[in-house]
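Narrative progress, year one. The postdoctoral researcher (J.K.) led the effort to move from monomer predictions toward full complexes, under supervision of the PI. The following entry was the first complex the group processed end to end, covering 565 residues in total.
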Amino acid sequence: MKIVVCVKQTFDTEARITLKDGKINKEGVNLIINPYDEVAVEEALQIKEKGGGEVIVVTAGPDKAMDAIRQALAMGADKGVLIDADPDADEYARAVILAKVIADLKPDLILAGHVAADDGSSQVPTRLAEILNLPHVNVVRKLELSGNTATCTREADGGTEIVEVTLPAVITCQVGMNEPRYPSMKGIMQAKKKPVDKVAAAAVESKAKVIEYFLPPAKAAGKKLEGDPKEMAAALASWLKTEAKVI
Amino acid sequence: MAKGTWVFVDQRDGKIRKVTFELLSKAAQFGDEVAAVVMGKGVEGLAAELGKYGADKVYVVDDDKFAVYNTGAYTAQFAAMVQQYQPATILFGHTAMGKDLAARLAQKLGVGLATDCTNVEVDGGKLVFVRPVYAGKAFAKVVVEGPPVMATIRANIFDVTEANKSPEVVKVAASISDADVYQKVKEFIATVSARPELTEANYVVSGGRGCRGPEGFKLIEELADVFGAAVGASRAAVDAGWIPHEFQVGQTGKVVNPVLYVAAGISGAIQHVAGMSSSKNIVAINKDPEAPIFAVADFGVVGDLFQVIPALIAELKK
């Protein structure tokens, strides 16, 4: 089975966010593989380990994004493709750019995290499926493959859904689907020799534009009590009634 | 010329999610005709409820093909209706259904989409969408090219206001084929709970590592029930297996926006705070006076939740 995993490089979730020249300041920020995409890579590797095949990691981003590809290769992916794309491209543009590359790869299955930790958009993989005219299932916690059928257990509002699609399809992964493996020393060494193609991005205009970034106002310090639990509980109950007015 | 604001009706088995009413209420402020779009089976009767919250018009697609949400059928039908009726703006709740449909539809229509928006500003006749990035550590103002201009809006942000309109009902025939359907929805397993759903709840009581185990969560539940609250959890509690993932609040869980959020035995890691920082009032109960949660709390109690929560329950029941 040929599996393509879409991977994005994002800020470390611990990163402090500051603005520089009105834009998000990227200086000195630790970059990681999007945690949701890491789950997708792990899922692809487990599928390959069960039934054979090839795992190709595709990333659209600047040169630094190569680190995300190398990490996926170190986990066990076979090949990578780095698409040199404008980091400010919107979801529409990114989906078109990814689709052009992925269509040529002709995968049986496309996996991606259901959301990126930086933009929180939840759009690109779904858009990708539409462009490639493939079925998709989003926010999947369990994926079972049988022949050409993918049975997905997905998070829906107020419950869980079991959805079946025929491959090839785009499946987006939710944290908890698996435990992503740590790359072994051997894996890290092997990753250096695995092939990574660098390609130019197709020229696509964005359809959504960020006109301003701003930071949330700093929060004023709240009350902080120490001492006797009963007294603190009484003070809290009183605050809830008279100041917060929530009861 | 494109005109009118459409709001997609997020419903299952005829029960409309609250975010739909929030969007109808907000859409009325844009100064354009507000239309609700409902697809399903046996949904004609929902028009009155939609009018109560501001719909001037309700487009109804009532057909077996839409009885259960599936992306293919809904996207194809919606796209056909957009072509026919040419709305200027379409709003969806940022729910599992809303964000799934909006993204696929936006690509089908070749337009942009702003998702998980926490505000909508009207600036010189144009809509500017405000949305959190980096787990709410920053915000972006986004303009989206349409028509239609499309956005998904976070639940529990906008107030629900009653407008008591008698909407014009437009029945739209199903215009999709079997080839449009590519998902087979085999089963839906509802989460059965008397408590409100996290993303819609006005009160949330969450437990973390300090609960020490599933037993500690019994106290969380007891306190939640005093408020009529939803129960939430930190990632530590979920990873420890004390409570299922669907209760997780945080960057890799749910984002909540209640009037009151109580975090008990939760240290307040950035990833957790990302899921609850917009709560209007935050209470923290933690043994560790240095726990980062106290930096975001409006009211902090440094103490053992096993002592503080029973005392608090007793106080609240007085």
